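Deliverable D4.2, example record:
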Amino acid sequence: MTVNFQSNEGDEELRISMEPMIDCVFQLILFFLVTTSFIKIEQDMSINLPVQSPHVQPKAPPTPPIVVNVRYIGPNQVVYHVNNEPQTLASLTVNMSRALVKNKDQAVVIRGDKRVRWDNVAAVMGCCADAGITKVSATMEVEQKAGR
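Output generated by the structure prediction step:
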């Protein structure tokens, strides 16, 4: 008894069918076309808009306040951060003075961790006073009671 292990199927060339992939691409295109909302922009050119006098200057939006985070890192140890950059009290005073030169109405918001001593928050207030900034506020979280 002889067993023939040769197959005639090996003579055919293997092909990858592209039709299912093309069908998927067309379905995706159709999906995006159907779900896309087209916004028509108002462009009526027949409206005569008022003309502003060149002497009237629009007000610039207010500058955001400088936010100083007083972070607790251990007993009697704090770090002062502005824009996630550590600062010393001296550099805080210098940066606040520079900000005050750019904007005379510069404000400062102090966010002190509840574990830091009041002296550390007061030190930031002193930096504000040394820089000449008078708009200083401290933030706290208001606890929401159940049932309200």
